[in-house]
Specification:
By secondary structure, the chain is mainly alpha-helical. Helix content is 76%, strand content 0%. The chain is built from 5 helices and no strands. Helix 2 runs antiparallel to helix 3.
């Protein structure tokens, strides 16, 4: 069993490490390189899952995806924590819209619903959330 640590402290440490790597001259030079790296890391996650490599290996590969996303924030000139805050706000708006859409269809939750139906509701919720923010 692993002990829980402060996620903010872990994020700050990863950001510090990325800043250190960049200061040392180790960074991606183009958006395409980052795109390719992100795809490579996502493939490694799937490979680890398909090869049943175990939860520690899968978690490690997911961490590489997260790190690549953080590197992309740096490359594009965005503050990582601000980007995460905006992502949280966007997801919260969409989840609220999804819950409202679900309730409007007479459901209390989406447990046991087929994936195509979930995707249909999610698209509807995204549109609703986007119109609410404009």
């Amino acid at each position: 069993m692993t002990s829980k640590t402060n996620p903010s402290a872990q994020l700050e440490e990863l950001i510090r490490q990325e800043e250190d790597a960049r200061a040392f001259g180790f960074f991606w030079e183009t958006h395409q390189m980052l795109h390719d790296q992100l795809n490579s890391e996502a493939r490694e996650v799937m490979s680890a899952i398909q090869d049943k490599e175990g939860s520690q290996r899968i978690q490690e590969e997911i961490g590489d995806v997260i790190h690549t996303a953080i590197a992309w924030c740096f490359f594009a000139g965005y503050d990582v924590e601000e980007t995460i805050r905006k992502t949280n706000e966007k997801f919260a708006r969409r989840m609220q819209a999804l819950k409202e859409t679900t309730q409007a269809r007479g459901l209390t939750n989406l447990k046991g619903q087929p994936v195509p139906f979930l995707l249909e509701l999610w698209e509807e919720a995204k549109k609703k959330a986007n119109t609410q923010t404009k």
